[in-house]
Design a protein that fits this description.
Layout: H1 2-13, H2 17-91, H3 94-109, E1 116-123, E2 128-134, H4 150-158, E3 162-168, H5 170-176, H6 179-182, E4 205-215, E5 221-230, H7 236-245, E6 249-254, E7 257-261, H8 278-286, E8 291-297, E9 300-310, E10 316-325, H9 326-377, H10 392-451, H11 458-483, E11 485-486, E12 491-493, H12 495-506, E13 515-520, E14 528-530, H13 532-549, E15 554-563, E16 567-574, H14 604-614, E17 618-624, E18 628-636, E19 646-647
Parallel strand pairs: 13-15
Antiparallel strand pairs: 1-2, 1-5, 3-4, 4-5, 6-7, 6-10, 8-9, 9-10, 11-19, 12-14, 15-16, 16-18, 17-18
Helix pairs in contact: 2-3, 2-7, 2-9, 9-10, 10-11, 12-13, 13-14
Length: about 650
Amino acid sequence: MLDKLRQFWRRIQAHRLQVTLIFSFSLIAAFIISAGMLVTSRVIRSYLNQEALARVRRGMVRGQAIYQDYMVTLISMARRVAVHSAPPLAAGGEEPLAFLAEQARIEVEAFPFEGNRFVVVLDAEGNTRAQSVYPAPSSPTSWGNWKGYSLVVDALAQGRVGGSTEVMPVEYLALLGLDRQAAVVIRDTPKAAPELFDQREGHAGLVLIGTAPVIGADGRIIGAVIAGHLLNNDFALVDRIREVGHMDTATIFLGDLRVSTNVPSPDNGRAVGTRMSAEVSDVVLRRNDVFEQRAFVVNEWYITRYEPLRDHAYHVVGSIYVGMREKAFLGLVSAFNERILLIGLASILLVFLIAIPTARSIARPLAELANASRIVAAGNLDVRVPVHGHGELATLAESFNDMVAALQDTREELVRKEKLASVGQLAAGVAHEINNPLGTILLYADLLHKELPPDDPRRNDLKMIMDETMRCKRIVGDLLNFARQRQLAVKPTDVNGLIRKTLGEVAIQPAFRRVEIITDLAPDLPLIQADEAQLRQVIVNLVLNAIDAMDDMGQLTVTTRQLSGEMIEMSFRDTGCGIAEEHLGELFTPFFTTKPVGQGTGLGLSIIYGIVKMHRGQIAVQSKVGEGTTFTVTLPISQPTRAESEVVG
């Protein structure tokens, strides 16, 4: 399974980036949303399960309240009848007993709840002295002795007033004509215990009973009253519990037998005669405990609560049950799950729709970079990619643009170096070939000049020949200096001191009389590793160029400072005529000059450029016509331990 997932992931990654991103976002979202749906479903199911149990618990509380209400009403009935029974029982005779029977009938018929109820008045020997059953039973009633019924024995012996749930044997039910009403046919029930919990099940009756003693004038117990409500085959109580408790079903058990219930049977009747499951009876009847969980009831699963019912001796005689169908609970869970699934699918679809523009916004800059890379590879370094936003992709685009700009600068510099090398080689050859003839011309012109008399007009011509020859020699010297391969004589150099010394030497020239020189030299500038003589040549050339640009009048500002990254900077700013923008890219090209013909060779800045590059530095220029020019030289503080030969140009 894991290998298949890996192969599927590799197939996704093999597609275009945009497709990969869309599927990746969607799969991640689907995984997270699915996990969230599963957790949410479990949480909701757990919550609904707890709520269902809480609902069943509340239903049982209401059911017990109704059950106790019946019990209290029966106790009150027994006490009222006992009060009315004392004089007739003490007097004896037919007429008082007839009055007693009438009082019992009135109380039974006035009972506020539906169902089979009865009142029996007993004398001190346990003999029936009056009784009334409502509604009238189909079987005949008869008077008898109740002394064998343990509840009656306790009532006569102890004068007990109270109520309890009792199992009434069939012989006493027969005295009341309720033996047929109490009979329940026991049905085979899945999951029931093999044996009956109480062997009286099926023919005995489960009865709610209230008892009260009859007290004579002398305070002795002269009888007892039993007021009862037969639960077998009577559904008023369980139906009321279901209605008031908002339950699906309710049941009263005698032992483990349903004697009163509204649990439906397979034939759509009431499941009277079916039995409790063995799992439940073991907890409720045998262990005398509460059962509260999912249970199989007759033919389907319910969420249930069972509580034991006890007689006057605190023996478990049955139980009371309330429950709700698990099917309804599962239907609610299923409805929640369907809605969660719908929300999850909608969320995944929404993520997919959002992933499309998101993936496009990521893939588009990368595609632009790829296309620009192909253009750069073809040799066009003028291409630039647009920068979108401020994130990592924007940084990547900016880095690409900076890289292309650096490549363009590098290519221009390489072209410039190639030009300088070619021109240098040409200049060296030409200079060597011209230098000797120039020396000969200068020698013979000087000899002729000395031999002529002072008033000879040809002396001026010879003087012009010698001056122009010297000018040619200076040009040839610049060519040789430009073309010469040299090594740096590196040593610790005080740049500030070198600038002050050089300015002091050149400032005595007449051209500096109307020029204001301002120095702003960093006091903490460190010594640098440099060739002092060549660095002096850089300073001299830049200062003289500034003087020429200002036409011998203006302001020259020289500054130094230390930069981060072990670098120092020299700046020469003049207030001269400035340089046109179209000429800035050609300033360091050999023989290019903006000076009039005859006033410059165009080699000064090329020589400066070569010196700065040999020092592994940079030179830059900023200029605006009519405002002035600034040359900035950046040099490293230290050089490699062993200087290497470099070709100037």
